[in-house]
Amino acid sequence: YDEFRKSVTGYPLPEPREITLKIFTDQYEPSPKVTFMFSIYGLSVAHDVSRALPINPTKQCCEPRNRYQSFCKPIFLKPDDPFYSKFQWKCLGFRRTEDCNVCNTTKREQKNGVTAALDGSFIYGTNDHVAKELRTNDGTG
Questions:
Q1: Distances 54 to 58, 80, 97, 112 between C-alpha atoms, Å
Q2: Cα 135 to Cα 141: distance, rounded to the nearest angstrom
Q3: Tens digit of each residue's pLDDT (9 = 90 or more) over 105-120
Q4: Smallest Cα–Cα separation from 84: which of 21, 40, 24?
Q5: What single string gives the DSSP state of each residue in 98-138?
């Protein structure tokens, strides 16, 4: 239940960063069918209907003492990474999300921190506390 998925052969899956680098290139290929607003709309929908709740959000998963905790899956970067090598980054601290311990399933399901409705909760907040955090109340935004 707490183990990460493996390939059908039983070996670990490829590192997420390696997959990203193979799929996304620096080539700019504009689409004749959609504009950049297509991406903005998709992100808006995604952020409105889902919010993962991280386990131990204060723990740094790249620190040696936390790397092998069940809530961490650090993504180690290659020295020649085309982006992160410029900043001497060696690791991306990936943290697992809270699991749904009341879901009737044999597979791990994550909790959702927001409503599953398109209701603008990422703009207005999901409760009074979050709504207050989203506003400055000083006229600046």
A1: 9, 29, 4, 10
A2: 7
A3: 777 777 777 877 888 8
A4: 21
A5: PB-TTS--SS--B-BSS-SS-S-HHHH-SSHHHHHHT--SS
pLDDT confidence of residue 49: 85
Q: Is 65 in contact with 93 (CB distance < 8 Å)?
A: no
Taking the complete model, does pTM exceed 0.85, yes or no? no
- Taking 80 as the threshold, does the pLDDT of residue 37 lie above it? yes
**19 vs 32, 62, 73, 88, 125, CA distance in Å?**
26, 20, 16, 20, 34
Looking at 47, 78, 132, 135, which residue is catalytic? 47
Mark whether 47 is an active-site residue: yes
When pLDDT is averaged across residues 128-141 and rounded to a whole number, the result is: 84
Phi (first) and psi of residue 97, to 5 degrees: -100, 165
What is the rounded CA–CA span in Å between residue 98 and residue 100?
7
Give the model's pLDDT for residue 51.
81
- CA 125 – CA 130 distance, rounded (Å): 5
Beta bridge partners of 75: 92
